[in-house]
Structure prediction request, 229 residues.
Amino acid sequence: MCEQFVARSERPFRIDRLFPFAESLERYGIAGFGWGAAWLAAPGSLETYRDVRAFRDDAGRNAIGRIETTSLLVHLRRPSLLSTLTLADTQPFTDPAGRFAFSHNGDLRNYRAQREAFEAAGRIHGRADTEVGARWLEDAWRPDVPVPELLGSLHRTFEGQANLATLASDGSAYHYAGNLENPVFEFRLDEVTIASTGVYSLDQSLFELVIPAGEARRRINPGETAVLS
Prediction:
């Protein structure tokens, strides 16, 4: 029952500009079991921060908040398996080659066989299904294949109720809608465009309770990807 969002702006913004939104998303999304962020630090370069504490309890977020960026991914954790409350399972996961950061909300149903193969290759460090999806995306990632196509293929491979968020090293941000229980919405907050999960509420309470200032709202259809580029 995680929540997550990607954000993009033509002009740099301080990350803590979106902290009130993240706090409300964590609260109403019943998350609070760790959080993480990835952001564009320079052209072609991503940085990542992860902590096992709730977003609201982590004093380390203050230093992150002062950073300016044009592209951001935030993941607020509520794992299906509470035995995975470790840093190794905290999202987002970063591609070792620095090409992207990846997080997901929901469940990747058919992950066990691929997990065994990645584990045998020494590429698995935690217990969560998301890490298996991240390793699969590392192998599938190619510059000639559009990211929305890759995310759709990942979902078809693993199935399950799964929203997939990706931040690429060129600053493009993507949010694939594949969890029918937690819709994805795109909207604008001043100059920042955001694509976010919807706190497991099909009645658009995201805008009533979490971000009433959101403008230009639209729901992303299942199987489609919001592209912020």
About this structure: Helices lie at 19-28, 61-65, 112-120, 129-140, 147-158, 205-210. Residues 129-140 form the longest helix (12 residues). The chain has a mean pLDDT of 95. The chain has one domain: 3-228.
